[in-house]
Amino acid sequence: MQSVIELFKSIFAGSLGAIFIFFGLVAIVVVVGLYVFGSLGLMELAKKNKMENPWLAFIPIANGYLLGKLGFEIYANNEEKNPTLTWLLLGVNAGSIILNNYLVNLCSIATLVLSVLAYNKIYKYMIPNQATKYTILSFFFGGNPLYFNKSIIKLKEEDTKAETSYKEEKEDKIKKTNETLNKEEKKLRPNFCSNCGTKLAKNVKFCPNCGEEVK
User: Where are the domains of the chain?
Assistant: First the structure.
């Protein structure tokens, strides 16, 4: 009887251990998968903006710099660009991995806050009407929303180019309009001889006073 109980105990312990191992492996796969997909989204955004070394999105610590560069500089409004926050995000990201004890928790919290702020800047530019929703998603899933919804990724320069093209087109129209008005005004304006200054009638070819050819 004792041996049977021991057998059941060993089977139960083995089964429980196998279950823990299984769920542990599943958790690892999920965490690694989320990291990979989030990095792919960040890399896609970096490539779109022709940033150097977009593959840094896969490197711990370095990906903090890449995200900060995108959020606090490229996708920020001109008056809101803040390179300091980019380097701060890099620093706290490194601190959360390198430091020990309670400093790790502080750095991890700071990394999370700055990362979410950076994503918020990006989403405010790309999808202003849904920025809040996607920012909340980034709080839990990082850059995964970028990867799984690539249609929202926009090159920062696209709007700038469109705006520049619109301004050039507008200036060109104004220039042509002014040229047309000047021609019409010139037609209505009385002519004078370039040689003697005599006022000339319309359509005359020579000045009646000095004989100078009218050009």
Answer: 2-154, 188-215
